[in-house]
Design goal:
Helix content: 10-25%
Order of helices and strands: HEEEEEEEEE
Number of domains: 1
Shape: elongated
Distance between the termini: 118 Å
Number of strands: 9
Length: 223
């Protein structure tokens, strides 16, 4: 008698098997997404820190050049004022320096210039933008502050502060020297009315609501 093998029956996945497969797939996807998100966060943070470091370097180098050529003799000016904005603090500073930047063919090539550092509130971000202006002081020509072109130094500042130290080591947040006049013949030289040291602190933030910030601090000794 001839016997035939039983017919092999085909069957699909059960509901339990499908649920287990979906569960395993979800775990794999979550792990991959977590790794991707962490990597993206690190890359974004590194790019932001690099951008902030470059901006801080520009500010420090520009201040060092301006302070290194500051005029503390006759004609010198030094006006440091503290300002508060909605959620930010920004100090302005004006002084006379010979570090004039020639940015166009019509600029005067040399001479003492009134240098100003002016933080302004960015209405779009709520943070501060730092501007620098300088205009050559010409004899008999008055400078109108409204007509002086200003150039953006950096963006995204939550704070920008100056602290001034006098000859005795006392600190103050503001300093006023309207103009240094030349002493008369035979007059004794007066003690310099300028600070001996200027501390600068500026804080970067990605947004006004950000709790994390990057702070840079440095100091400049005036000649």
């Amino acid at each position: 008698m001839i016997s035939y093998p039983d017919t092999i029956r085909e069957r699909g996945f059960t509901l339990v098997e499908l649920l287990i497969a979906i569960f395993i797939f979800a775990i794999v996807i979550s792990s991959v997404y977590g790794s991707y998100s962490a990597t993206f966060h690190i890359v974004h943070g590194s790019e932001y820190q690099l951008k902030v470091a470059n901006s801080a370097r520009v500010v420090v180098e520009r201040l060092a050049e301006d302070f290194g050529s500051i005029v503390t003799g006759p004609g010198g000016v030094f006006l440091g004022e503290s300002h508060e904005y909605s959620d930010s603090i920004g100090d302005s500073l004006s002084f006379v320096s010979s570090a004039h930047l020639v940015l166009s063919k019509t600029d005067t090539l040399s001479g003492h210039a009134l240098v100003q550092y002016l933080p302004e509130l960015d209405l779009d971000t709520g943070l501060l933008n730092l501007y620098r202006s300088d205009v050559v002081l010409l004899p008999g020509v008055e400078t109108d502050g409204d007509d002086v072109p200003k150039h953006l130094i950096c963006r995204g500042l939550q704070e920008f502060r100056f602290t001034y130290v006098d000859q005795d080591g006392n600190e103050t947040e503001e300093w006023q020297v309207e103009e240094v006049v030349s002493p008369g013949d035979g007059a004794e030289t007066e003690e310099t009315p300028f600070p001996s040291l200027v501390y600068v602190e500026f804080k970067f933030a990605e947004s006004v609501e950000s709790e994390n910030s990057t702070v840079f601090k440095t100091a400049f000794a005036l000649p």
